[in-house]
Design goal:
Helix content is 33%, strand content 26%. The chain is an alpha+beta fold and 275 residues long. The chain folds into 2 domains: 160 residues, Fructose-1,6-Bisphosphatase, subunit A, domain 1 (Fructose-1,6-Bisphosphatase, Chain A, domain 1, 2-Layer Sandwich); 99 residues, 3-Layer(aba) Sandwich (D-Maltodextrin-Binding Protein, domain 2). The strands form 4 sheets. It has a 7-stranded mixed sheet with strand order 3-4-5-6-7-8-9, with helices on both faces. Helix 1 runs antiparallel to helix 2 and helix 7 runs parallel beside helix 8. The longest helix has 26 residues. The chain starts with a helix and ends with a strand.
C-alpha cells in the first residue's frame, strides 16, 4: 500500500465518518424520533441511527474495493475472511446505549487493518464535534462541527493537533474506565496503579472515547476487563498506537490482533507511552 494510497484511504474514511456522524445527529436531535430501537441476537440495542450510519459508511468504503467488517453488516465465515490481508473494520455507532441515554458519548469508528494490525483509524464524536485520526504519519485531533456542510478534508488534516497533547498541571495518574463495566479486575488495576503512582484519579466515559483520552494524554491508562468486539477497538487502537501508546492483551502483554476467527477481544489495557 503506497503512501499516496494510504492518504487517500484516510481521507475517504474521514469523510465517511463525518457524513455518518451527521446522519446520527439528525436522528439524535429529532424531538419526534423514538430511535426505532430493536434488540439484536445478543440483546444489545440497534437503532435507526446505527442502520443509517452503516449505509452511509458503506457507500464510501465499498468503492475502495477493500472488504468491510462492520458491526451492522453481514459477517462472513472465517474461511472467507481469513484470505483478507487488508480490510476495513467499522462500528457505525459505537455507544448505542449512550446514544439512547442522550449523553453524547457515542462515536463513529472506522479502521483499516492490514495483516491483523490496525494501521489507520478514524473516530468521530459528532455530539462533541471532535475528530481523531491516526496512521503512519502520527495521531491527530481536530474540532469539526457537525453541521450541514463540513470543511474540506485537506483543511481538516492541516488543522489537526498532534497527539499526545500537552497536559500542564496534571499531577495524578489518570485511569479512564467504562461507566457500565467497573469490574473487580478493573478495581484491582486501579489499586495497583495507586500503589505504584500514589495519587490516582478515576474518570468515566462511554464508547471508544476512552481510548482517545489515553491517546491525547487526558488519561494514562484504560483497563478493559469486560467484553468488546474488534469493531469497538480497531479504530482507537490505530490512533493510540500512532500516538505512541500500547494496546495490549491484559494476560499476555501482546498487541491486539484483528480479523481473528473469534471477533471477541481479550481483556486489554491501553497505556500511555509517556508513563
Amino acid at each position: 500500500m503506497t503512501m499516496n494510497n494510504t492518504q487517500n484511504l484516510l481521507k475517504t474514511a474521514i469523510v465517511a465518518a463525518l457524513q455518518a456522524g451527521r446522519d446520527i445527529i439528525h436522528i439524535y436531535n429529532d424531538p419526534a424520533q423514538d430511535f426505532g430501537i430493536e434488540k439484536k441476537a445478543d440483546n444489545s440495542p440497534l437503532t435507526l441511527a446505527d442502520k443509517a450510519a452503516h449505509c452511509r459508511i458503506m457507500g464510501f468504503l465499498e468503492p475502495t474495493g477493500i472488504p468491510v467488517l462492520s458491526e451492522e453488516g453481514r459477517h462472513l465465515p472465517f474461511g472467507e475472511r481469513s484470505a483478507w490481508d487488508c480490510l476495513w473494520v467499522v462500528d457505525p455507532l459505537d455507544g448505542t446505549k449512550e446514544f439512547i441515554k442522550k449523553n453524547g458519548e457515542f462515536t463513529v469508528n472506522i479502521a483499516l487493518v492490514k495483516n491483523q494490525i490496525p494501521v489507520m483509524g478514524v473516530i468521530y464524536v459528532p455530539a462533541k464535534d471532535l475528530l481523531y485520526w491516526g496512521s503512519g504519519e502520527g495521531a491527530f485531533k481536530a474540532t469539526v462541527t457537525c453541521g450541514e456542510t463540513f470543511p474540506d478534508v485537506e483543511e481538516i488534516l492541516s488543522a489537526g493537533k498532534r497527539l499526545p497533547l500537552e497536559m500542564p498541571g496534571r499531577d495524578s495518574f489518570v485511569v479512564v474506565a467504562s461507566r457500565s463495566h467497573m469490574s473487580a479486575d478493573t478495581q484491582a488495576y486501579v489499586d495497583e496503579m495507586q500503589r505504584l503512582h500514589g495519587k490516582v484519579e478515576l474518570l468515566s466515559s462511554g464508547s471508544s472515547i476512552k481510548i482517545c483520552m489515553v491517546a491525547e494524554g487526558a488519561a494514562d491508562a484504560y483497563p478493559r476487563y469486560a467484553p468488546t468486539m474488534e469493531w469497538d477497538t480497531a479504530a482507537g487502537d490505530a490512533i493510540a498506537r500512532a500516538a505512541g501508546c500500547s494496546v495490549i492483551n491484559a494476560e499476555t502483554g501482546c498487541p491486539l490482533k484483528y480479523n481473528k476467527e473469534d471477533l471477541l477481544n481479550p481483556w486489554f489495557l491501553v497505556e500511555s507511552g509517556a508513563k
